[in-house]
Hints:
Blueprint: H1 3-16, H2 19-26, H3 30-44, E1 49-50, E2 57-58, H4 60-83, E3 92-98, H5 100-117, E4 121-127, E5 141-142, H6 169-175, E6 188-192, E7 200-205, E8 208-213, E9 215-220, H7 223-231
Parallel strand pairs: 3-4, 3-5, 6-9
Antiparallel strand pairs: 1-2, 7-8
Helix pairs in contact: 1-2, 1-3, 1-4, 2-3
Family: Belongs to the LysR transcriptional regulatory family.
Domain HTH lysR-type: 1-59
Keywords: DNA-binding, Transcription, Transcription regulation
Amino acid sequence: MDRFEAMSLFVAAAETGSLSAAGRHFGTPLATVSRKVSDLERHLKTRLLNRSTRRLTLTDAGHAYLAACRRILGEVGEAERAAAGEYSAPTGELIVTAPIVLGRLHVLPVVTGFLAAYPEVDIRLTLADRITQLIEEHIDLAIRIGQLPDSSLVAIRVGSIRRVVCASPAYQAEHGTPKTPNDLAAHSCIAFEGLTSPATWTFAAGKTERAVPIRSRLRVNTAEAAIDAAIAGVG
């Protein structure tokens, strides 16, 4: 008797509640499944399953043996994967998210190099200027800009950026150039939702920060749209 095969068929039958379902799962005839499970019971000298015309149910011995089989088969599978070298190199799918512009300019080149180095890994890169929910959206890794809230997630700082106030030469020729943050109140501004407030921009003043009121004539939800609008002279 192939004990591991019999144990696998028993686990499948117990989990599906049907010998025929276990047979379909493994591509094994029903008669063979029934015989192998019966051989296993004879080997153990105890009944594992109560059979009826509608459904299988586990005996007390069957419940205990099922837990042991799951543990043993899991350990055997783990050992086989390790022996086959599955863990010697990364494999599987990696889901990554990043802001659109940062992702296109800086993350994508890293991703292409990673794919070349690890041919058994597939990557799904989602670029979005919004805060994605990592757990709900099954995301493995997020590259984010800004102050991170306290959470149980593991975060590593990979770099730093600074924000600057920009306007096109045409806009400045028509409306003038602000000399101080307070001058922004007299100008048309483009607000990037999710990163800046539509009512105020924050500027550093030494070691402190202060919020400066702005007139937000255009609000957008992507950095690319904000850049394009500024180039077009909107604000």
